[in-house]
Amino acid sequence: MNKKVFSFFTALLIFILSFGNIAHAAAYKVQSGDTLWKIASKNNMTVEKLVNHNRLTSTLLSVGQSLDIPQASNYKVISGDTFYKISVKLGISIAELTQANPQIKNSNQIYPGQVINVPEKPYAGMIFMGPSSKKVIALTFDDGPEDVYTPKVLEILKAKNVKATFFVLGQQVKAFPELLKRIHQEGHAIGNHTWYHPNMTTLTDSQMIQTVQSTTDEIEKITGVKTNLFRPPYGAIKDNQIEILNKLGYRSISWTIDSYDWNGTAANTILSRVNIRAVPGGIVLMHNFKDELKLDGMIEALPKMIDNLRAQGYEFVTIPELLGK
Question: Among 84, 214, 261, 324, which one is least packed by beta carbons within 10 Å?
Fold first, then answer.
């Protein structure tokens, strides 16, 4: 065999063997009696990691539903490996590799076949759920501000001493600046929901950046605060768009609990939907747009929802508080 060809295949084999030993995920079919907590506990991970990894917009599971179970990554040392070579191969620093392997007292003494831990990279994808270690929940409102439902929502939140997060549209902010000021002055968090509510997946990169940045600029002009929270309309967004927004400093936020208030849903149905899906770290999706009487059910349900969740021991937080930022 030609020497160059032999060398190429030898290098390729080493590459395959090196990376073939790094575990990333495993498929799992939901069984009868399964819950997110049971599955997460069985696989030694947090519920929020399971939810965010699988992009779940509901905490309710169906029998037979497919889940991707992220596995703790490890690497099997091959002949000639050093910590430096492994760090280059895996794209991590030696310091991170050393910190993830406290059991290795001397990094110069590793041997073929030894299994070492690969540190996880910080999660940078869409956030569907916050940390579940505390019994907190975040109420969020999309599409405002406007002058019919937004004042009613604010009055209820004020009366109940609850802080929420409003994902606002740039065109609505421009039309109702005083209401945005009120949202800010009353201690609520503000996020970006684009200028005019387009489906992000239909936009070019430059169009996406323009609709997001113009909205952030309008929010900052009125409140003096530059938001770093973003929620895509309809929850529709491409992975590369999330990456672009990450580089611009935004965190993309989805939801765990959809109230379905937007289509005229009755108050009792909204209450039932939220109550059965409520989880520590959950994010509730509601709206504050002006469209006939479609949100009357939400306005009726909101004070009861707050009382019900408080009775269950939940504390209400904004998205920045939920994420610890």
Answer: 324
34 part of the active site: no
For this structure, is 287 an active site residue?
A: yes
Long-range contacts (CB closer than 8 Å, 24 or more residues apart) made by 220-224: 222/173, 222/177, 222/180, 222/181, 222/184, 223/180, 223/181, 223/184, 223/190
Query: Does residue 259 contact residue 294 with C-beta atoms inside 8 Å?
Result: no
Check if CATH label 3.40.50.720 holds for domain 136-323: no
| Structure confidence by residue, pLDDT tens digits, 217-271 | 999 999 999 999 999 999 999 999 999 999 999 999 999 999 999 999 999 999 9
Task: Provide the terminal-to-terminal Cα distance of the chain, rounded to the nearest Å.
Answer: 59
Give the active site residue among 188, 193, 197, 287. Answer: 287
In CATH terms, the fold of domain 3-117 is Membrane-bound Lytic Murein Transglycosylase D; Chain A (3.10.350)
pLDDT of residue 1 exceeding 70, the answer is no
- What is the dihedral angle through the alpha carbons of 241, 252, 324, 131, rounded to the nearest 10 degrees? -110
Per-residue confidence (pLDDT) for residue 20, from 0 to 100: 42
Of 81, 142, 143, 258, the active-site residue reads 142
